[in-house]
Specification:
Layout (H helix, E strand, L loop, with lengths): L1 E4 L19 E4 L1 H5 L7 E4 L21 H10 L1 H12 L15 H7 L2 E4 L13 H5 L2 H10 L3 E3 L4 E3 L1 E3 L2 E3 L8 E6 L6 H13 L3 E6 L8 H7 L11 E4 L17 E2 L2 H9 L22 E3 L3 E2 L5 E7 L17 H16 L4 E4 L22 H16 L3 E4 L5 H8 L5 E3 L4 H10 L3 H13 L6 E4 L6 E2 L3 H6 L4 E4 L2 E4 H16 L8 E3 L3 E3 L2 H8 L10 H19 L4 E5 H5 L52 H5 L5 H15 L5 E4 L8 E7 L5 E7 L5 E6 L6 E5 L5 E5 L4 E6 L4 E8 L2
Parallel strand pairs: 1-3, 4-5, 4-25, 5-10, 10-16, 16-17, 17-18, 18-19, 19-25
Antiparallel strand pairs: 1-2, 6-9, 7-8, 11-15, 12-13, 13-15, 14-15, 20-24, 21-22, 23-24, 26-27, 27-28, 28-33, 29-32, 30-31, 30-33
Helix pairs in contact: 2-8, 3-10, 10-11, 13-14, 13-17, 17-18, 18-21
């Protein structure tokens, strides 16, 4: 594919610019280099702004009545950038070049089925090297090619946090509180992002960026909304409370720009008709910190000199005001679409992660019950718009949706191409923690029953978030439905609490004192510390070589689970180096508000570039690692990374990534899991895994198995035959696994 430059050259302020000329000049993009077999076609390119257009902060009052301040905020705003991008693309015939209506998970998987999930704050780089510079380094991509990694999900790298007066304030949520389309200088430059994409393309890889359709930070867009300027209030669920109702509002302490409403105030404002009140749940609930999903500003002079107080919705933290997808201005939609197009057509990403995309609709109930805020049809509609726009310009999307399996199916049927595997991620971790796959088999079968296509899932190990319980399917959507488990009949509510308690008992407290419960959502830990707790290794300082070898085996088992099934497998840097949690004392300031996830986000040196550094450039303390950096691992055939490369090579050769899960049979040992997949050429593939510490010999039985020879994909050898009863036997070591195909008789 070729690109079309749609960049104007003027350096005048945006308010004075004319519309870009229709005259365009084609040049070759790295997408054409990546996909030689595709017919050549043009792809538009657009720039969010132009060199020299950023205005310095004038030495005037940061006040809505000061026109210079308002104009400065406009120059920083995402909505203004979105308008600039939109005018360059509007009416361009190339915006109709791609099919876009239906999600296409297998097309996304075929682009890249093995991802490295980065976290900008935690990567230790060489001296003078930025995060983006490190991700574009040839040596890293050579290592990734050796292992079998085909894509980098960068994590959020754009400016985040807020603006107070003329000053930027830091991020409060790991850069998921975005305030700009500009790359944060902490991580590099836009040119380094584009160079990273070029390097990835030369190795057949792609770059996956993030957008956040659910909220922003308190940046220029929010400040302009407070100033009641232009369409900016329409970006948010922002309610102008009349002065005669200010008596209902709490005072905002000096030095703060908002305060969270308590339950009584929320109820009073709802009774008065100003807000819709209580929502279905309070995410990140913390007494005295976040008791409701609403906060209020102090009195603020708007751009016309009118004193106003606003109440605003935030599903997440107070500094993450929620975007309103159904405001008459559609300003929030325009902002999000502009951010997506900037990542794809300006920076050159191939795909986008949609963060917090399940919370895009909220509606008042009619029976005084909590407002409808989860599984709302507006979320599906908004996700279809985002997914369609991204597909329209040749990209793909994936969602990280922590709702019910039904919601994942419904949203994935119209919106994103791929969905994060919240279906089985907690279940396979429970299987390891308890050496029992019953709950994992139950969730896999439930997903099959409800129509989940495993090839549409991103099967991930650790990421920046906690080991989430993600049991909303059972705890909420199917709370009263009865499920068979552990020899009993349990309601969804009972099953969810049983699993939560099992996770807490086996992974925290005396079992894993280095792990931590994270609010009501899950457990803060690394994959390695999940395993050590499951193995009964309570003292991380006393791990022996034999202990580490056992951890490695169990870690590779989890990799096999995620790799030997249809869909994407995603690995974090913490996985690749075997990171352990930080001591709480190392991140005391970061976890003081209850966000214990920071213990799992320790810094790591993926390429052994700076062994003397004790922190990343962003200030994250270095974590202890069990496996070391990739160069030393790849020089050792018995290392985690070298053994992982062989697993991923088997995956690649088998074609299982684009297959279809068709059966999850019963097992003769509780530690076993059997998955039967149908590949694209109709070959039957069988994955057999042992989540226990004892070797087993077991019979594999399924009606989906044809009579024929059983072939080990690792060796190519015939290891048995499927008999007339539809089964065969297999031997597995402790934490062992195998991928097999059936060659039909005759």
């Amino acid at each position: 594919m070729a690109t079309v430059g749609l960049v104007t050259t003027t350096n005048e302020p945006r308010a004075l610019r004319e519309e870009p000329a229709g005259d365009v000049t084609p040049d070759i993009s790295f997408d054409q280099q990546r996909f030689d077999a595709r017919p050549s076609k043009l792809r538009p390119q657009a720039r969010r702004q132009h060199a020299g257009s950023d205005l310095p902060a004038p030495p005037f009052a940061a006040d809505g009545r000061n026109r210079a301040y308002v104009e400065w905020l406009v120059e920083q705003s995402m909505l203004d950038d979105a308008s600039t991008l939109a005018r360059q693309l509007a009416g361009h015939h190339l915006m109709w070049a791609n099919a876009f209506a239906a999600p296409n998970p297998r097309a996304a998987v075929e682009q890249a089925s093995v991802w490295y999930t980065a976290y900008p704050l935690s990567l230790i780089t060489a001296h003078g090297q930025s995060f983006l510079g490190a991700l574009g380094d040839e040596a890293l991509w050579q290592a990734f090619e050796h292992i079998g990694i085909e894509a980098i999900h960068t994590g959020p790298v754009k400016l985040a946090g807020g603006i107070s007066g003329w000053e930027q304030t830091p991020s409060i949520d790991g850069h998921f509180d975005r305030i700009s389309m500009a790359i944060d200088p902490l991580f590099g430059t836009e040119e380094e992002f584009r160079d990273m994409g070029q390097t990835a393309a030369s190795y057949g890889g792609t770059i996956i960026d993030d957008i956040v359709p659910g909220h922003t930070g308190k940046g220029a867009d929010f400040r302009l909304a407070e100033l009641n300027y232009g369409d900016y209030p329409g970006i948010y669920h922002l309610i102008d409370i009349p002065r005669d109702a200010w008596s209902l509002l709490p005072d905002v302490p000096e030095g703060s720009d908002s305060v969270n409403l308590d339950r009584a105030t929320e109820e009073a404002l709802a009774e008065a008709g100003y807000i819709i009140g209580e929502l279905q749940r309070v995410i990140f609930f913390e007494p005295g910190v976040k008791e409701t999903n609403w906060s209020v500003t102090p009195p603020v002079y708007d751009h016309r000199g009118v004193l106003r107080r606003w109440v605003y919705l935030h599903y997440f933290k107070e500094g993450q005001p929620s975007i309103n997808w159904l405001d008459p201005t559609f300003a929030g939609m325009r902002l999000v679409m502009g951010d997506a197009l900037h990542s794809l057509l300006d920076l050159g990403s191939g795909g986008l992660r949609l963060d917090a995309n399940g919370f895009l609709g909220v509606e008042k109930s009619v029976d005084r019950s909590p407002a409808w805020s989860e599984g709302h049809p507006l979320s599906q509609a908004a996700n279809q718009l985002i997914g369609s726009m991204v597909r329209k310009v040749g990209g793909f999307t994936f969602q990280e949706l922590n709702l019910t399996i039904d919601d994942i199916v419904n949203t994935g049927s119209v919106g994103p191409d791929l969905s994060y595997d919240f279906v089985t991620r907690p279940a396979y971790q429970v299987a390891l923690a308890t050496a029992d796959t019953e709950f994992l088999r139950l969730t896999l079968r439930e997903a099959l029953r409800l129509g989940v296509d495993q090839a549409s899932l991103v099967h991930a190990l650790q990421n920046h978030d906690e080991l989430t319980y993600e049991l909303m399917h059972f705890a909420a959507g199917h709370a009263n439905e009865v499920f068979p488990f552990a020899g009993e009949e349990m309601t969804g509510t009972e099953l969810a609490e049983t699993i939560r308690q099992s996770m807490r008992d086996t992974l925290t407290g005396e079992a894993g004192p280095y792990n931590a419960v994270f609010t009501q959502n899950g457990i803060a830990c690394t994959t390695a510390s999940l395993i050590t707790a499951a193995l009964g290794l309570h003292d991380l300082a006393a791990l022996t070589e034999d202990d580490i070898a056992m951890v490695t085996d169990a870690h590779l088992l989890l990799c096999m689970y995620n790799a030997f099934q249809p869909g994407v497998i995603a690995l974090s840097g913490w996985d690749l180096v075997g990171a352990l949690p930080l001591e709480r004392s190392q991140v005391r300031g970061l976890i003081s508000d209850g966000d214990t996830r920071w213990i799992e986000r320790g810094a790591y040196d993926l390429m052994d570039t700076a062994p003397e550094l004790v922190k990343s450039a962003a200030g994250m303390p270095r974590a202890r690692t069990l496996y070391g950096g990739l160069p030393s691992q790849l020089a050792d055939p018995g290392s985690f990374a070298s053994r992982l490369s062989r697993i991923l090579e088997i995956r690649r050769l088998s074609g299982v990534a684009t297959g279809e899960l068709i059966d999850v049979p019963d097992v003769p040992h509780r530690s076993l899991l059997i998955l039967v997949n149908r590949l694209a050429d109709s070959t039957i593939e069988v994955t057999v895994l042992n989540f226990g510490r004892d070797a087993v010999v077991a019979r594999v039985q399924s009606e989906a198995l044809p009579v024929g020879s059983v072939i080990d994909l690792a060796s190519g050898a015939v290891v048995g035959d499927v008999d007339d009863l539809g089964g065969f036997s297999v031997a597995l070591a402790a934490f062992g696994g195998t991928a097999l195909v059936i060659r039909p008789a005759g």
